[in-house]
Amino acid sequence: MPKFLIEANYLSEGVSGLLKEGGTRRRAAVDELFKSVGGSVEAFYFAFGDEDVFVIGDLPDNATAAALALKVNASGVTACKTTVLLTPEEVDQAVKKTGTYRPPGYAIDQAEVAKWDGEGGQLAQESPGKKNQ
């Protein structure tokens, strides 16, 4: 199941609710939210700094993660940001995928592109791709 990082900030009413309920009841509410959409919470932390809460959890798919974020943000008392997390194995798969990409302002020699297979599709430092003048 895909893993997500949820970063949340309490707005003024959210802080008031937290003061009233306490941290463990908030954690239980987040656990129930994830469970209600077919997911689970792996880690839940309150924090000092720019974000008030960090949650790492499993959700069935991106659409479910979006639905969860919409529900939380629509409450008007908490604002959250969702980040898709990748495992090292998923990154291994990603770096093996090739594609043709022309950076802005560059012309790419197609003979060079043909050599990219298995190299991750990036421009080599000494690439014959020329920066457009």
Number of strands: 6
* CATH superfamily annotation of the largest domain: Lrp/AsnC effector binding domain/regulation of amino acid metabolism (RAM) domain
Coarse structural class: alpha+beta
- The SSE order reads EHHEEHEHEHE
Binned strand content: 15-25%
Shape, per Cα inertia axes = elongated
Strand order of the largest sheet: 2-3-1-4
How many helix segments?
5
What's the quaternary structure here? single chain
Instruction: Look at the structure and give the CATH class of the largest domain.
Output: Alpha Beta
Our count of domains comes out at 2
Terminal CA distance reads: 47 Å
Using only C-alpha atoms, the radius of gyration works out to 22 Å
Record the SSE blueprint.
Blueprint: E1 3-10, H1 12-21, H2 23-36, E2 40-46, E3 53-58, H3 62-74, E4 78-85, H4 88-96, E5 106-107, H5 110-114, E6 130-131
What key phrases describe this protein's structure?
4-stranded antiparallel β-sheet, alpha+beta, 2 domains, about 40% helix, two-stranded antiparallel ribbon, about 130 residues, Alpha-Beta Plaits, 6 strands
